[in-house]
Amino acid sequence: MAPETGYVVGADIGGTSLRLALAGMDGNVLAKWKVSTAGIRDPQVVVRLIHEGVEDLLKQNFLPLSVLRAVAAGAPGVTDVDAGIVIATSYLMGWRNVPLRALLEARLGVPVAIENDVNTAAIAEGKIGAAKGIRDFVFLAVGTGIGAGIVLNGRLFHGMNWSAGEIGYMLVPGTSVSPVKTGEPGALESLVGGEGIKAQWQSLWSANRTKLPKDLVATQIFDHALTGEPLARTVLRKSAETLAYAIYNLAVVLNCPLFVLGGTVGMHPALWEATQEVLAHRDKRVQPKLLRSTLGPDAQVNGAIHLAIDTAVSRALSS
Amino acid sequence: MAPETGYVVGADIGGTSLRLALAGMDGNVLAKWKVSTAGIRDPQVVVRLIHEGVEDLLKQNFLPLSVLRAVAAGAPGVTDVDAGIVIATSYLMGWRNVPLRALLEARLGVPVAIENDVNTAAIAEGKIGAAKGIRDFVFLAVGTGIGAGIVLNGRLFHGMNWSAGEIGYMLVPGTSVSPVKTGEPGALESLVGGEGIKAQWQSLWSANRTKLPKDLVATQIFDHALTGEPLARTVLRKSAETLAYAIYNLAVVLNCPLFVLGGTVGMHPALWEATQEVLAHRDKRVQPKLLRSTLGPDAQVNGAIHLAIDTAVSRALSS
């Protein structure tokens, strides 16, 4: 097949949904596909769903299977990209050493690449998003937990055991220093992950202090902070300080000039603005630029598309 | 000249002394040379001293200038390795944008390489020291301040503006969160650099609490901690906790399996042991190995020798 012909599929495997997109070799998305993964833990079932999605996407576009050149999938856990194995996901899915690449290649009959889902999002932000053309940057996914996709010299940095950027465990002023128990969230995400922000709110909440309900999620709390509600502003300030300290530490260690905030919580404009404010007053020498993701919830699938394109091209070159 | 013939000189420029060593192309040191730099700030004077040292070393060994193939120098500040410029050193020397490589090449007439001094120490630990053969590791220099030399995929990681590893500014539980003023030490080194440890001691000291004098340096305090003196043990514990949190953060971000402690304070066995103890109880998943430098105060000059050898070899290949 000529380099520019054919199609790829990018997939994002999440705890609540599986999202796929079909694209040309130029990265332009032709169609999307989505299915719930609530309650699904078995990797074989996920592989079967991806297969169904790929067939659906091709059929919708009146394309034969033979035009499919490669597939890439982002997985929500530590992923050995070279071996094609998902080493571990969080307790929700509970995967351990799943040979996802081999399972998908056997099922789909095309070259497959796998990657951690925060890293696929970082790929997309670097190719077509907020970090387009930037050599060194960090993509921060702030959702239920917190993870970082680190791009150095234009390439993803994976670390010795594929778990670089697990910054949910970072220790900064204000975080707990208690030893980490297996399966429990890390110190940083316990404060500024979605669940941590909810927990902050609930621990400060009393009927005397606010008219708002006790049961709010992080983005609702930040919405109220934007309207000036005092308790919500307190939680926002604490969250922004803690996140700013983590970004500052990353900037100091990696000498990294750009951070891109993504994830449902990280994308919130109130958190972005307040975090920027803290960073601006910390240290004149260390002033990393802080941008919001331009791709939002599409970042992961988009990154998987670009990874699939690279896979198709490198297979074509080596054959 | 054949690849294996000839000699190189490695130099370490410090605030108190300038150290040089002459070596063969196998890295074996033939002779050392040292001169005080107390009170010397002028880069031209440092260049002249290096020239004198190089001539002395060759003369001592009955070698003509023609056998010298390259020189490398470590400088105590942010160093642009590509441009050969020392961008900034601490207020003690006060260098700003000194074209050290060009100055030395003009004076010595041989190829010269320059590098940050913590990075030269990291080079040496990776070539012949505690991290020999390890692909990813961090060398931590704990002296008056704290700096890190980060080696990833077997190469020094410099960052976007040559200041990766400036971890003296890291924020961990227990450090101040006050904004950093220009020229002042960072939050982490304010607690566990040599001066910070002294300050901890002095702030806790009272004649009722200890029979030891108020005026002790960090290594003396740690010596007393080893004998069980309670106040010294308190300072040791706090210092070790803070250092362990910083190492933990680096391990989490970089997924780095090995840390080498160097510098006069960092080499102290009491700090090493106590820091290891804190790390061992923090997190089962994140258990970086912690070793003491095997090269000690020779690490910087030794790393410069290896950098000079690489410079000589690469010039020979490109000419």
Summarize this structure as a short list of keywords or feature phrases:
homodimer; 319 residues; five-stranded mixed β-sheet; 38% helix; 23% strand
Explain what this protein looks like in three dimensions.
Two copies of one chain form a homodimer. Chain A has 319 residues and is an alpha/beta fold. Chain A has nine helices and 13 strands. Chain A has helices at 43-60, 100-108, 117-128, 189-192, 194-204, 218-226, 230-254, 269-280, 299-318, and strands at 7-13, 17-24, 29-36, 68-75, 77-80, 85-89, 96-98, 112-116, 137-142, 146-152, 155-156, 258-262, 289-292. In chain A, strands 3-2-1-4-8 form a five-stranded mixed sheet. Chain A has a five-stranded mixed sheet with strand order 11-10-9-12-13, with helices on both faces. The longest helix of chain A has 25 residues, at 230-254. The model of chain A has no long low-confidence stretch (mean pLDDT 95). Chain A binds chain B through residues 135-136, 148, 150, 152, 157-167, 169-175, 177, 179-180, 182, 241, 245, 248-250, 252-257, 281-286, and chain B through 135-136, 148, 150, 152, 157-167, 169-175, 177, 179-180, 182, 241, 245, 248-250, 252-257, 281-286.
